[in-house]
Specification:
The structure holds 2 protein chains of 2 kinds. Chain A is an alpha+beta fold. Chain A is built from 8 helices and 5 strands; from the N terminus they run ααααααββαβαββ. Chain B is built from 11 helices and 4 strands. In chain B, 50% of the residues are buried. Chain B: It is an enzyme of class 4 (lyase). Chain B: GO terms for molecular function: nitrile hydratase activity; transition metal ion binding.
Chain lengths: 219, 213
C-alpha cells in the first residue's frame, strides 16, 4: 500500500537529529512496549509481514506524529483484536472481561534466550530456477496495491541491474494477508541515482533494494 | 481512562511529555490485560529488555569488524557468507537471520537504511537508535545521502561513490568500515574500540587510533 511508512525520497522532515550517547530506551514504557510486541509475536498467530502491514495502516497523520514504539503499540492493538486475543472493550479498559483465542505458545522468561537466539529465518526452498542472473538488466513493475508490498514507491518502474541472487524467501505481499508463504527468488537490484531521482541526483550515488522476482521484468 | 482510539488523532492538544505519559498509561494497561489473560509473562519482558540492554549491542558488530580487519580468511568468509561467519563468533538470532557484510573501500562508501520500516541487524548492533527509525533519515538517506552524512559530521571526498542499501527484505546489512591508518600493531580488542555503531551503519567512519588515548 502507498502508506505513510513508504518514506524514501519524501521531503520536509528536517535534519536528522542524532542524540549523543543515546540510551536504548527513552521511557520505561518503551521497554514494556518492546517486550509486549515480542511476546505477542511468539503466539504464532501472525507473521512479521502482517505486523508490518498493521503498522502501515495507521493513518498518515497519526503515523508521522507517533514515536516508533507508539507505532508498535498501535499495531499490536489491531493484531490482538483481529486475532481474537482481546476485544476492543478489553483494550480500552485494560482488564480481562472474557476468554479469548488461545495462542500456540506463551513466552516465558526461561524461553527468552533460546527464542531470541533462534530468530525466525525466512529463506525457503523453491523448485524453480531463478529467472534472472547477476549482471542482468531488470525493470521494476509499476503497481500500486492497496495490500502489503515491499517494493518502495521510489523504486517502481525503474531500470536497474541485478547485483546478486540472494536465495528464495517468503513473499511478504502474500504472507501479510494469510495467503501463504509462497517463496520467491530475491534479488539485490541496484539503480543509478539519476534513474531514481533525475538529472540533479548525486552523480556518485547508487541505491539498491532487495526485490522479489515478481516485482521484476526483463529490462 | 485513557483515549484509545487507533484511527484518529487525539482531539486535544498536548505537549511531548504528556504524550509520553499517555503512552505510559496505555502500555501499562495493555500489559495488565495481557497478563490477566495469561498471554504474556512480565518476567519474559524483563528478560527481553535485559538482553538488549546488556547482551546484544554494537560491541558484537565491532568484534566482527575487528576480526575482519585482522584475519583475511575471516574477511573472505564474511564476504561469501556473512550469516555463517558472524554466527561463528556467537552472534545469531532475531533480526540477524540473514546477514550481508558490505565493505567500504577507497572508492565506495556504504550506507544502510530501511525506508519502509526500521529493519536493522539487531544481532550485531542491538536495537536501532531513534534517528534510524525516524522519517528524516528514512526519507533522505536514499535521495540525499551526502546531506544526511553532513548532519553526522561526515564529509566524503566528492569523487567517492556512495552506495545506499535499502533493507526492503529480510537481509540485514552490516557495513565493514575501512581500517584506519596507523593501526598495524593493534590487536582485535583494541581495534574493536575504534568501531562505533554509526560506522557500521555507514553514518560514520572508523575512529583514528589517537581517539583511544
Amino acid at each position: 500500500m502507498n502508506g505513510p511508512h513508504d518514506l524514501g525520497g519524501q521531503m520536509g522532515f528536517g535534519p536528522v537529529a542524532p542524540e549523543k550517547d543515546e540510551p536504548y530506551f527513552h521511557a520505561e514504557w518503551e521497554k514494556r512496549a518492546l517486550g509486549i510486541t515480542l511476546s505477542c509475536g511468539a503466539f504464532g498467530a501472525w507473521t512479521i509481514d502482517e505486523s508490518r502491514h498493521a503498522r502501515e495502516n495507521i493513518p498518515p497523520a497519526a503515523y508521522l506524529a507517533a514515536s516508533y514504539y507508539e507505532i508498535w503499540i498501535r499495531g499490536i492493538d489491531k493484531l490482538l483484536e483481529r486475532h481474537g486475543f482481546a476485544t476492543r472493550a478489553e483494550l480500552l479498559s485494560g482488564h480481562a472481561q472474557q476468554p479469548g483465542a488461545v495462542p500456540k505458545r506463551v513466552l516465558k522468561a526461561d524461553m527468552v534466550p533460546g527464542v531470541l537466539a533462534k530468530g525466525g529465518p525466512c529463506d525457503r526452498p523453491v523448485k524453480t530456477a531463478p529467472r534472472f542472473v547477476a549482471g542482468e538488466g531488470v525493470k521494476t513493475k509499476n503497481f500500486n496495491p492497496v495490500t502489503h508490498t515491499r517494493l518502495p514507491r521510489y523504486a517502481r518502474a525503474k531500470t536497474g541491474v541485478v547485483e546478486a541472487v540472494q536465495g528464495a524467501f517468503v513473499f511478504p505481499d502474500d504472507n501479510a494477508h494469510g495467503e501463504g508463504e509462497n517463496p520467491q527468488w530475491l534479488y539485490t537490484v541496484v539503480f543509478d541515482g539519476a534513474e531514481l531521482w533525475g538529472g540533479d541526483a548525486d552523480p556518485t550515488l547508487t541505491v539498491s533494494i532487495d526485490a522479489w522476482e515478481s516485482y521484476l521484468e526483463p529490462a | 481512562m485513557h483515549d484509545h482510539d487507533d484511527d484518529h488523532e487525539h482531539a486535544h492538544g498536548h505537549d511531548h511529555d504528556n504524550h509520553y505519559s499517555d503512552m505510559q498509561a496505555r502500555v501499562k494497561a495493555l500489559e495488565t490485560l495481557l497478563t490477566e489473560k495469561g498471554l504474556i509473562d512480565p518476567a519474559a519482558i524483563d528478560a527481553i529488555v535485559e538482553t538488549y540492554e546488556t547482551k546484544v549491542g554494537p560491541r558484537n558488530g565491532a568484534h566482527v569488524v575487528a576480526k575482519a580487519w585482522s584475519d583475511p580468511d575471516f574477511a573472505d568468509w564474511l564476504k561469501r557468507d556473512a550469516t555463517a561467519a558472524i554466527a561463528s563468533l556467537g552472534y545469531t538470532g532475531r533480526q540477524g537471520e540473514h546477514m550481508r557484510a558490505v565493505f567500504n573501500t577507497a572508492e565506495t562508501h556504504n550506507l544502510v537504511v530501511c525506508t519502509l520500516c526500521s529493519c536493522y541487524p539487531w544481532s550485531v548492533l542491538g536495537l536501532p537508535p531513534v534517528w534510524y527509525k525516524a522519517p528524516a533519515y528514512r526519507s533522505r538517506a536514499v535521495i540525499d545521502p551526502r546531506g544526511v552524512l553532513a548532519e553526522f559530521g561526515l564529509t566524503l571526498p566528492e569523487d567517492k561513490k556512495v552506495r545506499v542499501w535499502d533493507s526492503t527484505a529480510e537481509l540485514r546489512y552490516l557495513v565493514i568500515p575501512e581500517r584506519p591508518e596507523g593501526t598495524d600493531g593493534m590487536d582485535e580488542q583494541a581495534l574493536a574500540g575504534l568501531v562505533s555503531r554509526d560506522a557500521m551503519i555507514g553514518t560514520a567512519v572508523a575512529g583514528k587510533p589517537e581517539s583511544l588515548t
